[in-house]
Design goal:
Shape: globular
Cofactor: Fe(2+); Mn(2+)
EC number: 4.2.1.8
Order of helices and strands: EHEHEHHEEEHHHHHEHEHHEEEHEH
Number of strands: 12
InterPro entries: Man_deHydtase, Xyl_isomerase-like_sf
Number of helices: 14
Function: Catalyzes the dehydration of D-mannonate.
Radius of gyration: 20 Å
Mean pLDDT: 93
Strand order of the largest sheet: 1-2-3-4-7-8-9-12
Helix content: 40-55%
Protein name: Mannonate dehydratase
Structural class: alpha/beta
Bound molecules: D-mannose
Largest sheet: 8 strands, parallel, barrel
């Protein structure tokens, strides 16, 4: 397990590379050019800036999260080919600075969705929260207004300029069924996986978060069966999954330990975090500790150890603790605590093996 830590870049993150370097066992950053619109080719000079910064702290930059997929690709429009060409060129450039894994997602319109960013937990810390009824009862128009007017309702990645495009985008998606989305994903993968193979890069799709359709938009990567299907679309080790325990874990039917075993060799990147799921379908993010949430984090880490996992892992969202001012879900303190929990489980497995051999 190679431990990495997400970093949003200078001036865009409250956490510094110096701090990241001091977290035990962290060897690299998970990064992206966050100011690049989806579909554009990433410029080499900007890529090299990240490389220089990471090198200065002895951190590698082998994991990119995310190179975002243009909506025209997801919609299957004729204009997709030009965007796919740009995607391939970006893959080629990233390979030249040593990138080995690229995370992306295929969620129409929205990335992750929450209804509150700073919901208070019993201990006084705050965390990201999803209120199912609120999202279920909303139409896209109402959503636009809420995003524009309500501070406590935020879709990360949704800048005001993009919000204006929401209505036409929803119109376009009316014609796109889940099966269409699968076909469009297959088309995309058939194009980019050979490029990824040539450059030694593993593509790692991120599951839908939450793992069910929202606002009438199809969402297709949300269960064991759907990941199985994804991996068969193009049967190559470079067509992999970012196994996100928190996204998949918001549906308690998802057996993530079983997925770690079944998808061995096709998980270049593990996102590890816990959520507490309530009976009404709401969920809140908790500390990484198994007993704090609904997801068996210790069991998942054990499963990675048992399957000889050599991919990248990062603690995913953490709570906001000790009054840390930080990006929602991406503070230093709780994610660093999370890493120590993950290492604790991992190292205890190693100790067990040594004892068995003795
Ligand atoms: C949230 C992240 C997601 C993820 C994208 C991958 O914090 O896990 O936004 O980066 O879905 O494309």
């Amino acid at each position: 397990m190679k431990m990495v830590f997400r970093w949003y870049g200078t001036g865009n993150d409250t956490v510094t590379l110096k701090q990241i370097k001091q977290i035990p066992g962290v060897e690299g950053i998970v990064w992206a050019l966050h100011d690049m619109p989806a579909g554009e080719e990433w410029p080499m000079d900007k890529i090299l800036t990240y490389k220089e910064q990471a090198d200065a702290y002895g951190l590698h930059l082998e994991v990119v999260e995310s190179v975002n997929v243009h909506e025209d690709i997801k919609l299957g429009l004729p204009s997709r080919d030009a965007y796919i060409d740009n995607y391939k060129k970006t893959i080629e450039k990233l390979a030249t600075v040593g990138v080995k894994t690229i995370c992306y997602n295929f969620m129409p319109v929205f990335d992750w969705v929450r209804t509150e960013l700073f919901k208070e937990l019993e201990d006084g810390s705050t965390a990201l929260f999803y209120e199912k009824a609120k999202v279920d009862s909303m139409d896209p128009g109402e959503l636009v207004n809420r995003i524009a007017n309500e501070l406590d309702f935020t879709m990360p990645g949704w800048e005001p300029e993009r919000l204006k495009l929401l209505a036409p985008l929803f119109e376009q998606y009316k014609q796109v069924s889940a099966e269409d989305l699968w076909r469009n994903l297959q088309y995309f993968l058939e194009q980019i996986i050979p490029t990824a193979e040539r450059h030694g890069i593993q593509m790692a799709i991120h599951p839908d978060d939450p793992p069910w359709p929202i606002f009438g938009l199809p969402r297709i990567i949300n269960s064991r069966e759907s990941i199985r299907r994804l991996l068969q679309l193009v049967d190559s080790p470079c067509n992999g999954v970012t196994l996100c325990s928190g996204s998949l874990g918001a549906n308690p039917d998802n057996d993530i330990v079983a997925m770690v075993h079944e998808f061995k060799g096709r998980i270049p990147f593990a996102h590890i975090r816990n959520v507490r799921v309530y009976d009404n379908g709401d969920f809140i993010e908790t500390s990484h500790r198994t007993s704090d949430g609904t997801v068996d984090i210790a069991g998942i880490v054990r499963a990675y150890h048992e399957t000889g996992f050599t991919g990248y892992a990062r603690p995913d969202h953490g709570r906001h603790i000790w009054d840390e001012p930080c990006r929602p879900g991406y503070g230093l303190y709780d994610r660093a605590l999370g890493i120590m929990y993950l290492w604790g489980v991992w190292d205890s497995m190693r100790a067990g093996e040594v004892a068995k051999r003795a």
